[in-house]
Structure formats: structure tokens, C-alpha cells
Specification:
Layout: E1 4-10, E2 15-21, H1 23-33, H2 37-54, E3 62-69, E4 75-81, E5 85-90, H3 103-110, E6 114-121, E7 128-133, H4 139-150, E8 155-163, E9 169-179, H5 186-197, H6 201-206, H7 211-219, E10 224-231, E11 233-234, H8 240-251, H9 327-335
Parallel strand pairs: 5-11
Antiparallel strand pairs: 1-2, 1-10, 2-9, 3-4, 3-6, 4-5, 6-7, 8-9
Helix pairs in contact: 1-2, 2-3
Length: 338
């Protein structure tokens, strides 16, 4: 099934719903990272979560989310926009755990203690940054917690994956539900009970079901309306040439102009095997604002500020990595604040 996002409204109960199928983009992201099965699923869940959150954005808005925790994967990053373009990164893609890959194993790989940081670019003067604690390594529960804290609306997030006996990802997807102001509190509880009676989303999709059919079964006798269906895909305009040009730009104290790299370019994990870059800088989705407010006319790539600074990873719109590459860059890394 083609990856896509479906936005719907349960009109009778004023509930908005977002369903995402992200199998293809999750496989591509895992392949680009040469990720182990458990790391690939964790990255896929981060991408799925970002896609679900992107379903609440307007077309011109963008969102990034970062998870840092005490698990062996260390960190997860995903960025998306209102057009269904998504990209992401996992801190330690080669971490392996004994098979099979279960939801509990993924939670252990992510970690039990940590935080989720969400940054939104709503094309206003300032970025919106929120931080919530990680809910026991469960990304779905953590996102629901974030939405309830941020939007002050009862929220439910479910993410599900399906692996075969060879630990190859066969399906992954997610569901987001939010009740609008004034809706009785038992509405979300009713939908939760209905979910318990349905097959897991990934199994439902693997058996030939569609997001629309899943919403039909969930809504049951309540009237629902499909508002939008859009494709989602792992997306970046970066290239090998841009990667090879990065060290000289960084060593000179600069970075490529994000507005000249084409729409959607951010470089998140496009070329992890082509070029390793130094942690500590800013570029791509991270920007160079370093916490300062920047005029709203500038692009997202120049406005993310301190989101990942100083210790996470280095991006200049071309690749990700963790090792210094030249003496000049090593010197800058050694001198950068931790």
C-alpha cells in the first residue's frame, strides 16, 4: 500500500482523526541508516509520529521533534511539513537486541527516562518549543501526553508495526484522535474501547485494509467525513556534491544558504554513509538562530535555533554523522560548549 495520510472528522462527536501509513518511508529511512531491526522500527515510529503531528499543520508550517533518552539508541529525530514530506535520524542505528522485535524491545531500545522536544515553525516571529517527559519509552503515549499538555485537548495516539520471521518490516502506521472543546470526556474512552476490539492497525493494513476502512470501523454508527488524503514520503533534495562541499564551508565558518538549496532541503540522514560530519553545528532543519528570535520572513532552515545545539549532531543540509573530519573542524568541535 502506498504511504499516505488521511485526515477525517467524526462530525457527530466532534473528533478529528489522522491515520498514517508509513511503511515505505520507514523502510527507506532504515535502509539509509543501515539500521538494525529494532533501530529501524524505532526510527519508523518517530517518522510516523511526525507524520501524524504533521496532519495537524497547515501547508506552510513545519515541525521537528527530538527524543533523547537513556536507552542504547540515545536519540531520535524527525522533521515534517504540511505537505507530507518527512525525514529523520536515529542516534545509534546499529544497536541490536535479541529477537523478536516487540513493542517492549523498542521501548527498551529508546529508553525509559528522557524527554521529547517539539519545535513548530508556524511562520510567526518566534518558533514554538515544548518539552515533555518521555512516557516509559512509549512514543505514542508520549505524543498523546504532549498534545494534551500543548493543545489542552484530550488526545489518543496509537502506533503499530508488523515484522515477519526474518525481522523485515512488513507494515507500520499510526492513528491520532483528538476531541474538540465541549465534547464529553467519555467520547475518547468509547473510541479507545472500540480500538481494543479492532485488529492492530498494521495487521489490518497488511490484510488489505485501508486507512479509510479502519476509520469506518472505528467510527461505527457515527458519521465521519474524510477531509484530506495526501501522500507521505521520505524526502530530501540534498546530493553527494553538496555533501562534499560541506567541510570547506564549515571550516570557513559558514554554511550553505538554506534558501538556495531547493524546497524541503534539510539533509536529515540523506547521506550517513557518504560523509561523516561533526556534532555541534547548525544547519538543515536546525538552522543558525541559536535561540535568538529571527524575522518571520526567513526560512525554517535558518530559524530552528538551539533545538539541537550544541551536542547532538552536525548538519549543513547534506548529511549526518558523529566524527570530526578535518583539523579545523576538530578544533571547532573541541572548543564548542557541551
Amino acid at each position: 500500500m502506498t504511504d499516505r495520510l488521511v485526515r477525517a472528522l467524526v462530525k457527530e462527536r466532534t473528533v478529528r482523526a489522522v491515520v498514517a501509513v508509513t511503511t515505505g518511508l520507514s523502510r527507506e529511512a532504515a535502509q539509509r541508516h543501515e539500521a538494525s531491526p529494532v533501530a529501524g522500527v524505532a526510527l519508523g515510529q518517530a517518522l510516523t509520529g511526525a507524520v501524524l503531528m504533521g496532519g495537524l499543520l497547515k501547508a506552510e508550517h513545519r515541525l521537528a521533534m527530538k527524543v533523547e533518552a537513556d536507552g542504547p539508541l540515545q536519540k531520535l529525530l524527525a522533521e515534517t511539513d504540511g505537505h507530507g514530506q518527512v525525514r529523520g535520524y536515529v542516534g545509534r542505528p546499529h544497536v541490536s537486541m535479541p529477537p523478536p522485535v516487540t513493542p517492549e524491545a523498542v521501548r527498551e531500545a529508546i529508553g525509559r527516562r528522557g524527554e521529547l522536544v517539539v519545535v513548530k515553525d508556524l511562520r510567526m516571529k518566534h518558533l514554538y518549543e515544548s518539552v515533555v517527559s518521555l512516557q516509559g519509552g512509549d512514543l505514542a503515549a508520549t505524543l498523546a501526553h504532549y498534545l494534551e499538555q500543548s493543545d489542552q485537548l484530550p488526545s489518543l495516539v496509537e502506533m503499530d508495526f508488523l515484522m515477519d520471521s526474518a525481522e523485515v518490516l512488513q507494515g507500520i502506521g499510526g492513528l491520532l484522535l483528538q476531541t474538540m472543546p465541549g465534547e464529553p470526556p467519555d467520547t475518547l474512552a468509547t473510541l479507545r474501547h472500540r480500538l481494543d476490539d479492532l485488529p492492530p492497525l498494521a495487521v489490518f493494513l497488511a490484510q488489505g485494509g485501508t486507512p479509510e476502512a479502519f476509520l469506518d470501523r472505528l467510527a461505527a454508527d457515527w458519521d465521519r467525513q474524510i477531509l484530506e488524503t495526501r501522500p507521505v514520503a521520505f524526502h530530501c533534495f540534498c546530493s553527494r556534491e553538496r555533501s562534499l562541499a560541506a567541510p570547506s564551508a564549515v571550516a570557513a565558518g559558514g554554511a550553505p544558504d538554506p534558501d538556495r538549496r531547493g524546497p524541503g532541503c534539510g539533509g536529515l540522514s540523506l547521506l550517513p554513509r557518504t560523509l561523516s560530519l561533526l556534532p555541534g553545528g547548525a544547519g538543515g532543519a536546525l538552522g543558525r538562530a541559536e535561540g535568538r528570535s529571527v524575522r518571520g520572513g526567513q526560512g525554517l532552515d535558518a530559524r530552528w535555533g538551539r533545538f539541537f545545539r550544541p551536542h547532538l549532531f552536525f548538519v549543513v543540509g547534506i548529511g549526518w554523522g558523529s566524527r570530526p573530519t578535518t583539523p579545523e573542524i576538530r578544533a571547532r568541535w573541541a572548543a564548542s560548549p557541551r
